[in-house]
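Practice problem: predict the structure.
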Amino acid sequence: MRVCQFRHTRVRRGVWYHITSLIPRAICKFRIANSHCESHRKPATTFLPLKKEHAAMNIVDAHCHIYPEKIAERAVQSVGDFYALRMGGGDGSAQNLLSVTERSDISNFIVYSVALKAGTVASINDFIAEQATLHPEFIGFATMHPDFEDIKGEVERCIALGLKGFKLHPDSQTVDLDDPRLMPLYEAIEGRLPIVIHMGDYRYDHSHPRRLKELLHAFPHLVVNAAHFGGWSVFDLALEYLEDERCFLDVSSSIPFLGDRRARELIEIYGYNRILFGSDYPMWDPADELAHFRSLGFSAAANEQMLLRNAERFIGEKIGA
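Answer:
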């Protein structure tokens, strides 16, 4: 088993770090209401988009959470409470997310949920697999918990279920992303399945970007989406640690905090070939997030890379016809 060992590194904390670290505090106070890495796997499955005559190309929302209808309301409220935000993107159900395709050009969604207890891992994975089977617009990712008894066995079961990757949320799961208990997961999926890792929160150290930097070095074939520009609310720290690293980064739950100018700068610094579009549904409305992303004014070629091609590279499979 590989265990990451971390160096304590002093990081320059410039003016931008101080500004961005204050933004979430202000939002928590006022509770706003508005709403280059290559995969090591060969392409296999083709995910079909919902047919739309006006869609010029398939567009993938790479960051969505869905829940069973009977618990969706409670789950959405719990996420809102965790971040002290009023959720404005939808009710968290699969059907509600699918309705986005009727009012936007989004054709496919990478969907998952997070296990806060080891005992819910299997049932969540069964639910996501079921939804991905029922709805070809969905690309299902599994969850894992550090206290799950048979991590490697569950990885194999998830592959058999047709799930295409994993998702971890170190902060809500209260586990360091480099915790030794998670090493069996990374070992089992390295070079086989990608993983989305929630990154960054000024209140916690579990998902600090320095941890991911060392993890990427320990697992050189691990395909990672470092969510939220690599560090929600600590965007400048993420840049310090991840600018030259081998990982994707999605833009979910970031642009409203960064502002358009800084968001565009970060995309250009990291490079178009590393950025994934994501909405963080149901926190935000995917149709609105796509419109906002397009308003940043990137070229058609850059948008195609970020809205589709990088998602294909991330999961290692073709999306759409």
